[in-house]
């Protein structure tokens, strides 16, 4: 039995267990464009690592190199201690490629049976089909499944062989909220059963909810890493007071009235943010300034920085072309 | 919230047996081909209709015995339909829908991915040939049994050669382009590639279609070994296409 206790015991005995995935100095170029630029990361065994980054940051390229679909131009990658292309590795990992994959004319259960036939101790395909809510589409060919259904079938294919490590590339893309919640529950169950998970996402709440470790990447480089708690709560003065009001208010008077070290800005249209050590005096200063301006501060909240703030601070607030 | 009993996903990895994987993959390939209406039209209905037409109507000149000659040529056509055109189109769309990547990510070894497709294609060709042969016998075909081993050998060789050509086409280009080209090439080979008619132009004999039709005619009609020339042409095309396809075939 591989309960949590055993695993923790194992970790204590051996302080440096073999990482599930170990990437160092990874470089991948497509022509003149450098998609991955000296990336390092370590995914711990039995933990969930989220690779978080905007579109085009190099997440999929990194994962596909780990899966053995692409070759690296430089750097080293070890997956469960083996080179990514090693034939001995593939039965041990489960892969959910971005956008899924299946014969256009095949039915969900036939596809899952085929993948199950490749495994020594597969899960029950019928059960997994039901769990993933595909029981209502048993006669539908793959090409007529919705994007979310194709994604769920792909997830089933990744899990059917009882792998030690699963790669999930944007696992909830194109899914409705119920299906997303189900995928989160599945990932949580995988972790509890000792499966290592490496997933990519650009959804902050997904990373914050699921991940033990988050690696934020941008333009092929790691810009921050740590647990969600470490990334969001680093300093006591790293707090925010947010409120909504009429857009375009002149902030110079408020700025002058606030204590040293606090900054105020209009983060988005009509969305104001005061950053620094927020105490009751600061809240009072802000509300009285609002009263002077004759505006009502709506949705006034005090909070620590969210992962989204960390992410946007690191990767920029501008839309990329 | 969905909860799963502890231990549901406890790792127990391992590769399935090679025999079971090969069987499952080949069966899937054959089943999907036979379930696809357009594929059945191309691989079964059209060859069957042409066999009947060539045997009973004397519009197209055909050496005697007429039914025997027609049977040999339609065997060749059936192999080209299924192993080349059908395989190319299926591969083009399989790539579009990401199945090669999906299967490559499973424990299925790469060589088995090829072997499964080959076995699936051989199963479909065997069914086509049985159906066509029974029809030909009904139409009055007299098969010299001494030719059986040669016919079987040629069917396998033809399937491999045209299968390699089909993979070469379907593995490299976009699905829509594959669809158009595979059908056009099929039609051209049928009309002027030495399949329906013997074309008295030198270079046509160097086409795999003419070589297969000619070799099959020798063994199906006369029950003797095919000439070394047509067999050499088939092998050369197959080897060249296979070698090229291993470089050009992409998973997606």
Automatic annotation (TrEMBL), chain A:
Native organism: Lentzea xinjiangensis
Q: Chief location of this protein?
A: membrane
Q: List the Gene Ontology MF annotations in alphabetical order.
A: ATP binding; ATP hydrolysis activity
Q: What is the lineage of its organism?
A: Bacteria, Bacillati, Actinomycetota, Actinomycetes, Pseudonocardiales
User: Does the entry feature the keyword Cell membrane, yes or no?
Assistant: yes
- Which processes are annotated in GO (biological process)? response to antibiotic
Subcellular location field: Cell membrane
Q: Which residues form the ABC transporter domain?
A: 21-244
Supply the name of the protein. ABC-2 type transport system ATP-binding protein
Automatic annotation (TrEMBL), chain B:
> Which controlled-vocabulary keywords does the entry list?
Membrane, Transmembrane, Transmembrane helix
Q: Where are the transmembrane segments?
A: 40-60, 72-93, 114-141, 147-172, 184-207, 227-246
Q: Which residues form a coiled coil?
A: none
How does this protein sit in the membrane? Multi-pass membrane protein
The GO terms this record gives for MF are: ABC-type transporter activity
* Record has Secreted as a keyword: no
Q: Which organism is it from?
A: Lentzea xinjiangensis
**Location in the cell:** Membrane
Give an example GO cellular component term for this record: membrane
Domain named ABC-2 type transporter transmembrane: residues: 27-199
Q: Cite the Pfam families for this sequence.
A: ABC2_membrane (PF01061)
This chain belongs to the protein called ABC-2 type transport system permease protein
């Amino acid at each position: 039995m591989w309960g949590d206790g055993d695993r923790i015991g194992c970790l204590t005995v051996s302080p440096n267990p073999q990482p599930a995935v170990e990437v160092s100095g990874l470089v991948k170029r497509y022509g003149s464009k450098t998609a991955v630029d000296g990336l390092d990361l370590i995914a711990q065994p039995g933990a969930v690592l989220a690779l978080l980054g905007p579109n085009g940051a190099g997440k999929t390229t990194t994962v596909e190199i780990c899966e053995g679909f692409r070759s690296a131009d430089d750097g080293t990658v070890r997956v469960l201690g083996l080179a990514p292309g090693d034939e001995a590795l593939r039965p041990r990992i489960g892969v959910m490629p971005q956008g899924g994959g299946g014969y256009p004319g095949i039915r969900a259960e036939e596809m899952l049976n085929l993948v199950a036939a490749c495994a020594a101790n597969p899960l029950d395909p019928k059960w997994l089909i039901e769990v993933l809510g595909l029981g209502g589409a048993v006669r539908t060919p793959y090409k007529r499944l919705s994007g979310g259904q194709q994604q769920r079938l792909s997830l089933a294919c990744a899990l059917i062989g009882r792998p030690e490590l699963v790669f999930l590339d944007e696992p909830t893309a194109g899914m409705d909220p119920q299906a997303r919640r189900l995928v989160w529950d599945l990932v949580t169950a995988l972790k509890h059963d000792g499966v290592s998970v490496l997933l990519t996402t650009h959804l902050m709440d997904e990373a914050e909810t699921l991940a033990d470790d988050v690696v934020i990447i941008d333009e092929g480089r790691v810009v921050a890493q740590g647990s969600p708690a470490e990334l969001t709560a680093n300093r006591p003065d790293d707090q925010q007071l947010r409120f909504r009001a009429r857009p375009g208010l002149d902030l110079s008077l408020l700025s002058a009235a606030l204590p040293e070290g606090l900054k105020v800005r209009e983060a988005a249209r009509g969305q104001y943010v005061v950053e620094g050590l927020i105490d009751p005096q600061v809240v009072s200063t802000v509300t009285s300034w609002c009263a002077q301006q004759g505006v009502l501060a709506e949705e006034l909240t005090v909070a620590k920085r969210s992962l989204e703030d960390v992410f946007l601070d690191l990767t920029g607030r501008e839309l990329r072309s | 919230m969905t909860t799963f009993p502890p231990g549901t996903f406890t790792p127990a990895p391992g590769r399935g047996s090679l025999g079971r994987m090969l069987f499952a993959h080949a069966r899937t390939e054959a089943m999907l081909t036979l379930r696809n209406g357009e594929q059945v039209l191309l691989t079964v209905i059209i060859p069957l209709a042409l066999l009947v037409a060539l045997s009973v109507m004397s519009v197209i000149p055909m050496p005697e015995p007429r039914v025997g000659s027609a049977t040999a040529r339609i065997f060749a056509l059936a192999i080209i339909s299924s192993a080349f055109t059908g395989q190319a189109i299926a591969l083009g769309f399989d790539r579009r829908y990401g199945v090669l990547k999906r299967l490559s990510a499973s424990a299925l070894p790469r060589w088995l991915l090829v072997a499964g497709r080959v076995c699936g294609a051989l199963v479909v060709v065997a069914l086509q040939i049985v159906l066509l042969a029974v029809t030909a016998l009904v139409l009055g075909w007299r098969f010299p049994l001494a030719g059986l081993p040669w016919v079987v050998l040629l069917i396998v060789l033809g399937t491999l050669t045209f299968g390699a050509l089909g993979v070469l086409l379907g593995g490299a280009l976009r699905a829509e382009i594959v669809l158009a080209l595979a059908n056009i090439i099929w039609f051209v080979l049928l009309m002027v590639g030495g399949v329906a008619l013997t074309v008295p132009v030198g270079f046509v004999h160097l086409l795999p279609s003419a070589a297969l039709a000619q070799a099959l005619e020798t063994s199906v009609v006369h029950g003797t070994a095919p000439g070394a020339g047509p067999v050499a042409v088939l092998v050369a095309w197959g080897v060249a296409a296979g070698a090229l396809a291993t470089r050009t075939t992409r998973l997606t």
